[in-house]
Predict the structure.
Amino acid sequence: MSAPSIPNLLSLRSGAAGGRGRGRGGSARSGRSGPGPRPSHDATIQGTDTDAAVSRLSAVELGYLSDPFARLFVQGPATRRLPIINRGTYTRTTAIDTLVDHFLATTSPDEPRQIVSLGAGTDTRCLRLFTSPANHRNIAYHEIDFPTIMARKQTIIATTPSLQTTLSTPSPLSPTTWQSHSLTPEQPTSPNNNTLTLHGLDLRTLTPSSPTLPTFLPTAPTLLLSECCLCYLPPQTTTSLLHHFTMSSSSSLLSLVLYEPILPHDSFGKTMVSNLAARGIAMPTLDVYPTAADQERRLREAGFVRSESVDGIWEGWVSEAEKERVDGLEGGLDEVEEWRLLAGHYIVAWGWRGGKGDLDVRIAC
């Protein structure tokens, strides 16, 4: 696989409608070309959700993943991605789902617990959780992204008929904050104890001295999710942002799961960074935390630690039977070495602060 054709796993995030979301960033996919003014870095990052949604829908329609909500956030016809990209979508999504499920399994369903998705965009994980056969209870789910992104998402939720038995119509808590309740299938007009709060704000404004987010539960066990969000912020900003939540939470359990690129200095990594830069996207933390050890050190300083590459997750977390099923969807993967190279440049890191939040997960999917 030649360098210019190397696909980018940063496009493998969930969600998206006609605009990026996930105030985090995803891939260099929506960069503008041709004449005219170049979009700002913020606009470029916000505009990257569309390709992620297309990649996710590709994996769903080919049978890699089950997500009845993926189509709701994609405009236009579905586009089939390369098998290597579909496998990457599957592996990253499955790994994070496994960690989220583990967090929920180690916290009491009889008491509130919360998940905070940083730069959530139009991610569908919350919808999948609320409709899971596991019948999860007492989840306060928070999604944070730019105001325009969250406003668009609440409109989609409010106007999509197929979601009206899943979520209540979002109620405004402020001009840029909305809350929905999940609805039980048996009683679609009666909310249960799961809530989704959409926060429209710039993550860079959250500091240790910032007010606690509306509906945030300071004493509840909390899981922070960052799928290619923190890597697009300056290191000092990510530190300040994480400190906001450590200061806001008095719970004995604060957990973190993040998905980011690594290894920017080898030949593959240089090409990856160059491709992103050509579309106006920079990843400030990539040079500061370039290896798995650096990412673990970064999290250990905040009380968190553990990581695995996407390649390692595929090899160690996915059962042989599931590998066989996935490989059979498109007749196997021809570019095995290319897959190992690509997937070795992306990492899922996770950990905890205090409590019983043992996230040392080695679960076969």
Remarks:
- The chain has twelve helices and nine strands.
- Strands lie at 113-118, 139-145, 171-174, 177-183, 191-200, 222-227, 254-261, 307-309, 346-353.
- The chain has one domain: 83-269+283-353.
